[in-house]
Design goal:
Chain A has two domains: 156 residues, SPOUT methyltransferase, trefoil knot domain (Alpha/beta knot, 3-Layer(aba) Sandwich), CATH 3.40.1280; 69 residues, Helicase, Ruva Protein, domain 3 (Orthogonal Bundle), CATH 1.10.8. Chain A contains ten helices and seven strands. In chain A, helix 1 links the parallel strand 1 and strand 2. In chain A, helix 8 packs across helix 9. The interface between A and B is medium-sized, with 28 and 28 residues.
């Protein structure tokens, strides 16, 4: 059985050590990955990232993004990485060695995927994690769970390359106009939903942040298509319009 | 089926960058490895190797060795790592992802194994490689084969931990007094053999070095037991004695 292939983007969220960006790029190059996006690099960090042996091309074409959303915009499958040491999440942690098997039945219409790595000190925040479809745990030992960032990227790239779950070329633009909803569209519709829920008083000030995270996760877990998202967006727009009309009537 | 476990020693041969020793130690700690030996560290490198996050214990107990032979002395199975890019060897290169399966039928009496990493610039020399029972190739892509040292250690430790081919504790001294010949005994008997071959004129000055490498490899590939080595040593001693007698008779 042929393993379906994804075109992966590696996303580093707020890395602090400039050496780690180059180290990540080199590990990517070693295993045939090409796309690197760095979210909110501290300016000096970004300036200091010069060449990485054998990975000059990746570093040169790496992109800096202001937000995670901007970084993962047109991908349709987002996987976060964690050492699993910090806290227990109420979602499944896929052991890295099982990621290829986990991907196999789920790849279907997906073409572009993003693999997220948090900053050296704090990892990915709960908000970042809530944008992920699944979380992967590198099977480190309990008494030394936290990996060096470049080494974590190396191990993950190795595991994906090992299973030949990596596409050599980016998909053509047509390919990702197809079924699964892209992250940008999902985030957009979620914002609209949040506005509506605020307007109807569903979100209470005290629990607002936690509820937002929960609802966003729910929305992301639904595997919506772009068509689903368009319909949902239409429904929400209609509700918003109705609420404004009623507000003006009173 | 239970995967037999080996107690692994990680051996870095002449690393040049002190950061890489710490990085290797950290990767080892992440995946439950403990024994680090560094062959001929450049003095300033060794001095600069201070702490590695979470791996202080490994760095503290790491040992510096003058020669590779001293570094792998009492291990009975030695695996070298290579990117496979430099030259073709006339021996099999085991892809890293197949190492656990390769080890399974061979582990038997082995308890202590060493995994060797060459220096950042040159990798392992032919002489180092001739002390190895097998060579492992990390499956990097052809256009960027050479890995960062710390990342190479991370990926190899991950693969071994992934297959649970790692013993948590060093074997007791009795365990490795058993069958397979240790490297020190093999080297010792090989030196004796070389003396004999020199004495009988088998080794020609021009091809001596190459022949030595070939013969040593042959000897190491035989999977001799300590008992075999003792017998072979006895035979060689007898030949040496006879040659000396004859020489004095003429």
């Amino acid at each position: 059985m042929k393993q379906p292939s994804l075109y992966w983007r590696i996303v580093l969220v707020r890395p602090r050590n400039p050496l780690n960006i180059g180290a990540a790029a080199r590990a990517m190059a070693n295993f045939g990955f090409r796309e690197l996006v760095v979210v909110k690099p501290y300016d000096p960090v970004w300036q200091e990232t010069r060449s990485a042996v054998g990975a000059e091309e990746i570093v040169r074409s790496a992109r800096a993004a202001e937000t995670l959303r901007e970084a993962i915009g047109e991908t349709t499958l987002v996987i976060g990485t964690t050492s699993g040491s910090r806290r227990t999440f109420d979602r499944e942690l896929i052991p890295l060695q099982e990621l290829p098997a986990w991907l196999r039945p789920r790849v279907r219409g997906h073409r572009r995927a993003a693999l997220l790595f948090g900053s050296e000190k704090t990892g990915l925040s709960n908000e970042h994690l809530s944008s992920c479809h699944a979380l992967v745990r590198i099977p480190t030992v309990p008494n030394c769970p936290s990996m060096n960032l470049g080494q974590a990227v190396a191990v993950c790239c190795y595991e994906l390359a090992r299973a030949r779950a990596v596409a050599a070329r980016p998909p053509t633009s047509r390919a990702f106009l197809s079924d699964p909803a892209d992250l940008q569209a999902l985030e957009h519709v979620f914002e609209r939903a949040a506005r509506v829920l605020d307007a109807v008083g569903y979100l209470k000030p005290k629990s607002r942040a936690a509820t937002i995270v929960k609802l966003r996760r729910l929305l992301f877990d639904l595997s919506l298509t772009n068509n689903d998202v368009r319909i949902l967006g239409g429904v929400l727009a209609q509700i918003e319009w109705k609420l404004r009309i009623q507000a003006s009537e009173h």
